[in-house]
Each structure stands twice: as C-alpha cells, then as structure tokens.
Amino acid sequence: MGVRVTTASVADEDKAAYWNGAVSRTVVPVEVHPLTPRPFDGLLVSHRLGYVRVSTLEADAARFSRTAALIERAPGGEPQIGVGVQEEGRAVLEQDGRRAEVSPGGLVVYDTARPYAVDYPERFRTHLFHLPRRLLGVPERDLRQAAATALGPTEGCGPVLLPFLAVLAASAHSYPAPVGDRLAGSVADLLSTLVAQLADARPAGEADTPNAHLVRRVREYIEQHLAEPELVPERIAHAHHISVRYLHRIFEGEGVTVSRLIQQRRLEACARELARRGRTAPTVSAVAQRWGFVNPAHFSRSFRAAFGVSPREWRERREAPGGAAG
After folding, report:
1. What is the DSSP string of 201-238?
2. pTM for the whole structure
3. Which fold has domain 212-319?
4. Strand residues in the chain grouped as ranges (E)
5. Would you identify the CATH topology of the domain 3-174?
6. What is the pLDDT of residues 51-106, one digit of tens each?
C-alpha cells in the first residue's frame, strides 16, 4: 500500500507541522517553512516501486531545507539521489553553491547526502523520485556535478525521460511488486544516463579532468562485457593500452575500485532478472552464470551483502501474491 497524507482535517495551527512530519517520515527529513500567511494546505501521495520511492507533493508556497544537522541525525541512512519533476508552479533549488530554477515541465537533480534547499514561491505540484546513489553506478564526481542542475522538456534526454517519469508517477499505485522492481531498474538506468549527460555538459571554465574521458570509456567497456567471466582489470587495461596500475590510479577518484564496480553492476543485473516473473523463471545459478559469476557460493555471499537477503529470498519475496507494500 502507498501513503496518502492531507492537511484537510488538521487544525489550522497544526497543518504546517503535520505536513512537515509526513514529508520527513515518508520522503526525506527536511524542514518545511510555509511562505504564505494563510493556514498551510498540503497533499502527499507516495508509493514504492522496488528500490525507488515515488512521491507527489501538492502544497502552498514553501521552502524545504535539508540541513547539515538533519543529515547528521541519521548517519546510517543510505545516501539517495533525488529528481524533482515540476508539474505546476516554479521550484528554485540550491546545493553546493549552485542555483537551478525549474519551470513546469522540467526537472532538477539533487543529492540527499549533502545540504540543499528548495523554494516553491507559489502553490506547486511536483513528483519526487528517490533511489540509492550506489545503484546508479556513476562516480561521485559526476553526482556532484549533476546536483542542482535543471533540465527542460526539450533539452538532452528530457523528451524521453520527462514523459516517462510523469506517467510513472501517475500510475505508481497500480503496479504489482514484480513489475515495480523491473520499472525501478529502468528508472536507475535512465537516471544514470541523465547524470552522465549533465556531468558532461560542464559550464565553460569547469575543465574536465585529463582522465575523465578514459574513465568513461572504461565504464562503457565494462557495461558491454559485463556478462563475461573473463572481465577483470588485466583485460580492461590491455583493451585500453594502459597498465593495470594506471587503471587503478585513474579510478582512485571514482569512489569505487574497478573490481568492485564490476561486481556491483553484475549484482544489480542479477537482482533485476531475479525479480522478473514468467512461466519459466531461470534458476538462481543460471542467472548468476549469465552475469559472469562462476562460483555460486561467492555469488550468494556477495548478493546477501549487497541486498540483505539471499538470491532465493529476493526472488521469493517478489513472487509472493500481492508483492511488497508500497
């Protein structure tokens, strides 16, 4: 089941605090400051599609602040990447010293692991998508570059991404858990593309690092050969005419080692495939082998470490009638 919260039946003097608490519990801890003198009116509808939280907020003008103090109070929370799709009203987001203004029909990217603030100067309606940063498989540098960057409906991948996200938000309540899991994988893939595109579109004066192009080529190579068991750092280095030592050096700023990146992307591919339902669902071992894991015991240990359950438990939960709650 999803979450639906409205201030309609709350006493006028408690409306703002009530809605602030609902948003903080359901979406991400924030401080909400109304920008209107009248009693605050807000509606929150939220559903979960696999590891993606989809929330629609409709409310009076307000300022949302994700402060350093709020972040420090929940140190165990997994960092999330957020995307806001503006339906009605404007939004102005500030993070890392940058400012992005979003008009209806556009979107903005932000990172919940670092402070940010969003101003909605008039009544607004927005769709918020949150998912763990690690599932995007993009370097920390690109995430920082993409944060507080807006994209219009005719820019870059906007013509493809924005309609998809709008439809997904409107229909999130209707998908059974297995379908939701598959859609979550699509969201992660599309947002990875978005972050990479925004990071590449660096303003003049923000020069790319000398190795950035090589890192992107290596990442593309890994994606293309992910299912091959022979995909190891030595082979990658040879294919790019560099030493293994240099390969490891250029990844020092990526927040993940080459070997760990390969394993992470393989596990995500396995998780998506195990969540699919069909008449002839493949065995766990077949899925593992298809994505380059040659040792079943190693695969099971790695999968549990990444997702908290065994591969079989992961699949059984998504095959259960009715699926997981939204």
Report:
1. SPPTT-PPPTTHHHHHHHHHHHHHTTT-TT--HHHHHH
2. 0.65
3. Arc Repressor Mutant, subunit A (1.10.10)
4. 3-6, 31-34, 42-49, 52-59, 62-66, 80-88, 91-95, 98-102, 107-111, 116-120, 124-132, 149-151
5. Jelly Rolls (2.60.120)
6. 999 999 999 999 999 988 888 887 556 789 999 999 999 999 998 878 899 999 99
